[in-house]
Structures are given as C-alpha cells and as structure tokens.
Write a structure and sequence with these properties.
The complex is a heterodimer of chains A (551) and B (573). With 551 residues, chain A is α+β, with helices and mostly antiparallel strands. The longest helix of chain A has 25 residues. Chain B is α+β, with helices and mostly antiparallel strands and 573 residues long. Helix content of chain B is 34%, strand content 14%. Chain B has 18 helices and 14 strands. Chain B has a 7-stranded antiparallel beta sheet, covered by helices on one side. A 5-stranded mixed beta sheet of chain B has the order 10-11-14-12-13, with helices on both faces. Chain B is globular. Chains A and B meet through helix 8 and helix 20 of A and helix 7 and helix 18 of B.
Amino acid sequence: MEFSEHIRTANVENVVLRQPFHPSTKGTLCITGHHLIFSDRESQSCRQVLLLLRNIDAIEKSVENLLGNSGLLSSARWKERAPGPSSGTLTIKCKDLCVFQLDIPGMEQCLNIAHSIEALSSMNEVADMYPFFHRPHDASLQDQWGLSSPQHQYHQMEALQRGRWRLSYVNGDHTVCPSYPPTVLVPKAVSDEVLLKVARFRQAGRFPVVCYHHRKNGKVIMRSSQPLTGANRKRCQEDELLLQAVIDGSDKGYIIDTRSSQQAQQARMTAGGGVESKSSYPGWTRLHRQMEKGKSLQESLIKVVEACGDQTNNMDRWLSKLENSKWLYHVQTALSTAGLLAECVERDGHSVLVHGSEGTDCTLLISTLAQLIMDPACRTLEGFLTLLEREWVQGGHPFQQRCARSAHSHARLQQEAPVFLLLLDCAWQLWYQFPLALGFSEDLLLRLATEAYASDYGTFLCNSDRERCAIGVKEKTHCLFQALLKPEERELYSNPLYESTELAIWPSVHPQSLQLWRGFFLRWSQQGRHLEEAHDEMRNMICQWGRLAVR
Amino acid sequence: MDLLADVALLPGEERVTDKELIYICPFNGALKGKVFITNYRLFFKSTEAEALTLDVPLGVISRVEKMGGASSRGENSYGLDITCKDMRSLRFALKQEGHSRRDIFEILSKYAFPLSHSQPLFSYLSQEKYEENGWSIYKPLEEFRRQGLPNERWRITFINKNYELCDTYPTILAVPYRASEEDLRRVAAFRSRGRIPVLSWIQRDNQAAIARCSQPLVGMSGKRNKDDERYLELLRETNGTPKLTIFDARPSVNAVANKATGGGYEGDEYQNAELIFLDIHNIHVMRESLKKLRDIVYPTVEESHWLSSLESTHWLEHIKLVLAGAIRVADKVSGGKSVVLHCSDGWDRTAQLSSLAMLMLDSHYRTLRGFEVLIEKEWLSFGHKFASRIGHGDKNHADQDRSPIFVQFIDCVWQMTKQFPTAFEFNERLLATVLEHLYSCRFGTFLFNCESMRELNEVRSKTVSLWSYVHSSSTRYLNPFYTPESGRVLYPVASMRHLELWVSYYIRWNPRIRQQQQSPVEQRYKELLVLRDEYLRKLEELSPSPPSAHMTSPAPPGPAPTTQQFTHLHTPF
C-alpha cells in the first residue's frame, strides 16, 4: 500500500498550533506516512512537534466561514475571495490523552489533512506500521530482542526444585497454541502427547503452563484458558492428569476463575466453555472472582477520561462522576483478586491455576500483579519489564486488538479494552502505597501507557507470538524494553527511593486507599505538569546527593 | 503485669488509677486488658495475644457516657463510651459489680474536663523542659521588620497595649501612617468587637498589603461611618491601588442576614472599593461537614459508595472554597493591589484566608519556623477562639461554638504540600503533630481564645510551647526535598480534581487503611536528610562561594533572612 494515496496535502504553511503548556505558535504542518510534523520556524525556539499518527484517537473538524458568505456571493466573487478567509480547526485527541488544536488556513486543505490523518492513523496492516521504519542511530537490528527466556526461568527453577518441571517445545511452530510462545514450562510428569490433548480441551489451545515459581515454598502459578466442558460436562483425562501433576498428589491447589460462577456456568451451557468440576479435579478448590473486561472496561475508561477532561466549572459532581465511571472499582477488583492469588501462594502455600475464558486479559492482569506483590525480583526495573514481556507479550495479550482505539475515539468499539492500562494503573497504586519497594518510576508506567497504543518499537505490535514471527517483528523492528534499559534512559525510569525488600507488599484495596492516577489521567493539566516537574526535581536531588556521597 | 513499663510518663504526669476492663475494638473485637489513667492520658494495653495498646491524651476526649445499665444483659453491654475530638471513639466494657464504673467515669470526667471541675489543665502541671523556648519564636516587631515595616506609609502602634481598643487583638499593630490614634478608636466603634482593619502582610516591592478586620456595624438601618470610610481610603492610598478590594469571606446571603444582628458589609458609600464575597460557610456548616466525614470513616469505613459518600459530606468542597478564596487574595496582592479581608468577627474564615494567602505569597512562611510564626501571628495573636472552637478541658461537648476551622486550615496546607512537594521545609508529620496537640493540652500554645486571656493566665511562664517540643527533634519534621524559592508565589489548584482526602490523618485509626510502610519511608527520608546535609557540606568545601541558590541549608537558625529579593526599601526604624 502506498501512503501517498492518502496524502492529498502534504504541507500547509501558516498553521496555528494550540497545545497545552505552550503559547500558540504559527508554523508549517506536514503529514507523512506515519507522522504529523509541526515546525515553527518563526520564533527563536524553533519548536518541532513530531507525533505518530497512530497516537491519534479522534479528530474533530470545525470549518469556519463555510456558509458565512458563500450564499450571498456570486461564484465569481467567491473565487476572488477564496482561499482568503476560509479556515478550519482540527481538534486532535490522542491516545495518550493529550488534546490539541490546529488552525489550518483554507477549508480544503483542512479537510485534506483531516482525511489523511483519519486514514493513516487507522491503518491495520502491521507491516506498514512505523516500527518497521524506525531506525534509531544508536541501535542495530542485530541487537538482542527481548529480555526474558523460558530457558532462563527454567534453570532458576531447576536449581531449586530439581526434576519437577520441564521445558516443552510442543508449541515450537505455534500450531498447538497460536498465542503461546514456542517454549513453555510444564510439569515434568506430563508428556507432549498429553499436552496436545489438553490443548484441544482448552479454549484456543491455551493449556495450563507455569508462569511463576515461588522460591520460598516451591509453589507455582499456572495460567490457561477455560476448559471446554460444554453443556454435557465433557471431561479430559489428560487435563486432569496435568493439574494433578502440578499439586503432586498429596497437596491441594486453587483455581481462580476471573468470572462469577454464573458467568462460568453460562459459558458452559451456551458457548462450550466451562469450569473444572470438583468431582473431576479432586484436590483443586475453585474460587470465582468476577472481573469486568472488554466493553465495560472500555466504557469505564471513556467515562473517567471524560470526567477528567470536563473543562466546565461545574465540578461539584466530580467525585460522583469519578465513582460512576467505575474505573477505581476495576482497579480495586484487580488488586484484590491479585491479592487473593498471592495469598493462596504465599500465605496458604498452595499452587494456583488462573483463568477466565480466553485467559488473555484478566488472567494476565492478576498473575502479573500477584508476582509484583510476592516476588522482589519482579520489582526492579529489569524485573518488571521482564515480567511484562513474559506475561503480556509472550503470554499472548492481543495488544493490537485491545489498544487499537482509546478513550476519545468515536469509532464503533470492536475488541478494544484497556486491560494493560488497568495493569499499569494497579502497578502505580502499588508504587504509591509502597514508595520504596518498586525499582521503577512513574515515568516508566506513563511511557508504557503511551507505547502500548502507539510506538516506534515493535514490542507491542500484533496479537500473539505467532503473528509477530510471521511478519518478522523481532528481525525488522527494535525492542522497546531494550531501549528503556539503555544507560541514558535508566535514570529516568528508576525509582531513586528504591530499597529492595524480600517481603511481600500487600496492597490496601479499600476505596479510601486507592487514588485516581492523576499522573496519567490529569497529565495534560497545568497541575499535572507542575507535579511532574517537581518529581523530576526530587529525583535529580537524590541522584546528586548520592553521587557526591559516593565520591 | 506492669503497665508502667510501657508508658514513659511525662515530667509532671501522675498516675491516678488503673483498672481491668474490656476494650471493644471496632477492628479486632473485644480485647481484655488493663486501663491506666493519669492526669494526662488514658493508656490501655490488652492482655490478650493481640498486643494492642491505646495511648489517648485526655485532652482529646469530648464526651464520656455510660453505656447500658445494671440490668443490661448481653455480653459487653455495660460500660463507657468515650467520644474523641480527633475522629475516633472508644468503648470499654466493665463488669456490673460494685461502683467500679462510677469511679472510673468520675475520674475520667474530672481529668478530661478539668476546667468544668475547677482544676488546672495538664499543661499547667507539666514539668517538661526543653532546650529552646518556643515562646520566643514569634516576636511581632521582628516579624514586622522582616516585612520592611514600619516605613513611610505604615506605622506601628501600641494603642492596644492594654487591650483597650480591642481585647481580642494583639498589643502591637501596624496601621496606615496617616491614621491617628483617635481615628483608630472611632473606627473601632464601627467594627464588630473593635476589630479594626490592620496590616497582616505587605509585599515589599509594590507595597500591596493584606489587612484584616471584622464586619462593619451597618445594621438594618444601613448606618454609615465616615471615619471607617476614610480609614479604608487611607489603606488604599498606602500603595496607590486604584480600587481597594474588600474580600468578604461569607456567602452574600449570610452577609445580608448579619445586618439583622447589627453587622453587615461595606456598601457603595465606600468609594474606590470593590466588595467580593467568597462564599465560605460558617463554623456550624464546617462542624456538621466534618461530623459527616467522621460518620463515614469511623469506626467502619463506608466502602460501597465511598466517593459519593465523601462528596455528600462536602468536606472537600469546603476545602476547595477556602483555598480558592485564598488564591484570589494572593493573586490580587501579587498583582500589586491591596486587599481587606473580613467575615463576621474576623477570627475564623478571615484567619484562614489571610494565613493561606500569606503562605502562598511569602516563602518564609513555608519554612518550619516561618510556619510557626504564621500560626502564632494570624491565628493565636489575632484571636482565633481556640478555647471555644476546641473546648479544651470543657465538658460541654454540644457547645455550638465548637468548630474545626483550624483543622480545615491545616488540611488546606496539607493540600498545598501535596501539590508542591518541594516548596515546604516541613513535612506531613508536622501538620499531624500540630493537630495532635491542638487537643492534647500538653502544651500551652493553643489554650485560650486570645492573647489577652493568655497573658492573664500566664501561659508563657507557666506552660511549655508546642514549638519547644517540635524544635527538640526538628529533623523529624523536615522535608528532605525542600527547595527554597524566595519570591515565588504558589498557586495551588483549587479544583476538586486535584484535591484529595487526607486519608492518613482522617482515617489514621483504621489499621486496615493506615498508609502502608509509614516507618520505612520516614526512615528513608531521614537518611536522605543526612545525605543532603552531607552533600551541602561537601559542596561548601568545594566552592568558596555559598552553595548554589537552589539548595538550602537545613533549618536556618534564628529569624530567617529576608526572603524576597527586591530592591531595598528605605525603612525608617
């Protein structure tokens, strides 16, 4: 596909940019295949704005002088006056919640620009996306892609519990489970043949795999999708065997289902899904915790963003609006379910299997949060990024579908849902409640919140490992996580107050303890910017004091 | 079990009684234990596995009630209910035998409400000694001098040295140079309780001033007073402001209603003046609002509709209005315009507005010592009625004069520290400590309604100042990230979206909601303070000139140097 097809007007002079925190400036607007570029050559500052078109969520046009004079003027005189007074304003609303305006002279140019932005920002062909063109001077495509490897995790586990677990390459060509990576961790007692059968019994082939091994007691967190028991309560011996192998006979285990039991029953009756019944899985206790996902989560995001962006002075209903958005309720549910999971593993000392229906959303959300709560190794900057890569990227969260649109879009929702954003918000709540325990900074969470929706890097492209392999993401794009760990970035993304603790960090999940993530939702308000600066200043101070103390 | 081992008694603190009883803990259920009462505190320690202790200064007790009667059945239905002023209440169950409850009830009443029993407050019994005398933190003349006063437009008057002009004002006042003592007396006759407009703060470079007072006594008939009009004109002339802005903190309806009781507001007869109402509600509204907040946070926290319940208390909305009012004041003054503030009597909302505006305008008040001066000056010396608002040692818990106006001010300061984490030398702990001792009666600082009463009761010589205690370990109250920026005006955002409930204060009694990891964070901050000081020391060694402007030296000793970098004004003093 040619980008130029969509670009009728590539350059417009004398465009006025009105952006938060900056005086409005006049300059040149340029639309390329992937970017909106604004450069202001008039002033001394020579400000440049480079925005990924992919970051644009919605665009609103208001064209002035359209009808104002035309009805009264003869066409000849109209021509005389054109392109004189006609102009238009585009309001651009980004997925990172920034909103800005462009005043564009000439109605036609304005509409052309709007058309280009609309078309180019909603392109769906992954191979045409910017990460395939982004070539930073300080990185090479030969650089290592990604941080984690199942092999590494396996060796760590092997050192602690020899002979309990093994690496399986049954999914080597992604045919058993398209959304799993080629190598997965499973109980040693279970052969690949068994896994093949289990995969057929689980939705989309997501058979139970080990995602976390708790060093203190050797218990594990497994995750999967729902079993396909269906209306006539089908059983799968191999599936039962696999779970039995996890708890090793004597022990017992928990299954945390992220649906209510009614929802799970309904899935069984109508959609061929189901749950692990008590009789078929003795030793396993099922716990249901209903978590919202999909559409209702997306709608919640839209409402909270709307409340935050309400510029009217009538803010007396702010707290009600915030409550009605239910966003903080979702945060609470996620953290408390993750807390339950961590409690099962750390306090009760039992292994846990987590799933909902597909096991690609809430399942990943709570397994990630539980690991943050329990495992100090996940709380460092590298540890956290590795965790995200393992659970979300390799774990098969469909980023492309979920993050196609954000809160401003007028497009009809399809598969969008801010599950990853909810994870970042929950991580921020932990960070806020435990200012010393996490090695990464709020800036990292903010950066990830932006990158998940629009990025120069390939990390969040596609919906699964198979899709990424098919179009060569690892060969043709750069890895975000590697870039974030570069020495020059590290300071910004580290928490200067960090002090590693071996203890679990149990979050308080009472509504009184949860805060709106102002750093994200009110990021583009004056106050948000001001606080960001203050926090930068504080980080610099600590670094400065530390450096001199070392000297 | 020896309880004494657990309590470090204060010098002057004496044990009165102890008793076995059951504490009905709202979070852990009934706990057997022993209570120990001194002339200062109630201390409880459970004897059960749950090693819980309570350490309650008797001063925080607002009400003691008997619960259940001799015929009460049911477990733990007979005992005492103790309501506190600091958001909590305590319930103890006793055995129904002998006169055990009557004894403890009487002892508690006597020591919690000493004034109602003609007994002295604990601060008069305390023998605490501290190195620094907190009573000398605030010296009015020094503070005026710091502001560049007197000068050719403002003079210092001692007209009130015997509290004859106004018994609720301090003795030393700053007034327009051209107003004579006779003028002041005539103005006093037209202002409620003689609280004439006097200077609170002046901006050095443009001489814009904040003056505070009470409402004019206009009354139903719409009385005028030429002297008052002329006096405000003199005020305006001190810096040539074209229009003097009078901020009336009340909602306009209330200001009108006040005419019925002889009060009112400045009308059109005041030429060159504009009147702006700030819509801040009165002490009764604030009291009820905090009561509602208490109802949703103690003992059980409203969970299911937390945000809308919080909204229905209107507490944050009141905070917003107070802050927004102070911002308008600060904005006028930093724009070079002089302002006059009042409400009805000028000792509640006016104190909030003037002190908050001064905190925004003058970075000196954002230091530890400066903040203490601000409280001493705008709240204590100008007669915020602490005794009536808090009811120290007084059993009349339903007194309509009680109101959390000062708590609300501290909350506003907390909101500012959250929005400007590097602008304040002190930390949240200082604010919580101030509020703790607002009630405790351990120190004399917040006792009595005004300076004249404090003088009469020899507070300075017979009690210890809270600031003596604070300075005995001031590093606990310091913010390691403090970066002094003299001359910078802070404009907090008074929008609901940017205000937060001060959870770690209002919900601090709930162990499940208490802020996480409090002590490691404090420990880390302490280390950072050490690191910072080390850094500053090394920096000084490295460079012969003083350290770079944006770093501070910790806790500047003595009165801080002039904080504003403006051209030096000639000050004839």
